[in-house]
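Workshop exercise sheet. Pairs work together: one partner reads the sequence aloud, the other fills in the structure field after running the prediction. Swap roles for the next sheet.
Pair: D.N. / O.F.
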Amino acid sequence: MDAGAGLHWAFRESFREYVTAIDDGRIDRRQVDLDAMGRFVFRRSGRSSRSLWVFEGRVDFWAHFGVLNFSLYDVCIEFGPRPCISVGPQTREKERVVLAELEEVAAQVPGTHEFTAMLTADGARVLGGVYSVGDPLERLTVSPVGCSLSRD
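Structure field:
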């Protein structure tokens, strides 16, 4: 996979550090690379459209003998009245989870899209209530290199 193309997202650095500091904590990646800055790189899916950017791959966070069990998979950026990022249903969920509301900001690299991400109520809930609604997640970058993502 081209580590330059797709969705680059570290999710939340403090969460990643917490998981890896636990004796049985682990972060497993499937079809997800790491870029030079240590961010996860999810590749674009052919199911993407102008109003819905879909990304493939999976990152599983696991600790406390499975009490902490959270996954980033079937990741989508949805452009509606309020752009958001969502993931597939979690262990105890039946529906997709909208993790964060997004706001597009000026991209530091030409040809990319950058967003700030603020945790939603559903995002805070699936993370065990450790974080609050509105808490920032890491900034995410979508690099259209080889993926032709456009909202124009």
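Discussion prompt: Strands lie at 6-9, 26-30, 33-34, 40-44, 52-63, 68-78, 84-87, 97-105, 113-119, 136-143. What would you look at next?
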